[in-house]
Amino acid sequence: MGGDVEVDASLSSQSVTGLLMSLPLLPVNSVVTVKKPVSQPYLRMTVEVLEKFGVRLRCVDSSSDALRFSIQGGLHYRPADMILEPDWSSAATLMVASHIARYLRPQWKLSIPDIRTGTAQADERVLELLQRCGELEAFEFDATDCPDLFPIAATLACFCRGTSKLRGVGRLYGKESNRAESILSELTVLGGRISIRENDMIIRGTGGLHGGYVSSHHDHRMAMALAVASLFIDAPVRIDEMDCVSKSFPSFAACLERYVGRGEESACYNKRRG
To answer: 8, 148, 234, 243: which one is catalytic?
Structure first.
């Protein structure tokens, strides 16, 4: 491998990240053309991390439709000291849960710890999402470059007043589950009013949901979003395969209990462990 490589990145940036990490180790130079790049913040993060380990990539062309990287071969990574940023993808779930609780469970004691802002992580945009939502009002949000926020954003919309719109549905089909279908089916089971129109998900908030038996589809983001929904449902909610959260957030249950589900009504996991 090596030489000229062209990648269709319209569904995911992860394969591009893999190429950018491996091609510098080959004995030949390479040029990688990335067509229809999505999640560009994560590609920028990849380039920044590689530079810290002594591998510098050159982006020779950049637009919304294509990126082109010139990569020197025969390079080697060198040790480096790094300060690892907190994971905004995981923190976002707790922050949305805390935001809903502020208005629906004001008697709970909320204690979300401080988290570093100003990172290159796309999911830091959860702060924008919560600002748009305000006091649980309907909102519009483009999650094209931060698709991991989609399940928890859809959950948030179910507890808002009015009709919310999430853009970027096309990014959901190649995840751990078909997240467009998973969000639609499982939140509907709990009483959500959801439809999909091309690249938009429309969620008509009813101010709440009801109990039911739902599937995580063995998808960690879906499992966490459904668990957050169940906190604010005054009826039993059973979620199967909750162990899948261990992929990204093994301590999720403990953190949800510690930072959000405090107070006499919390009983965070008792009513929904499948």
So the answer is: 148
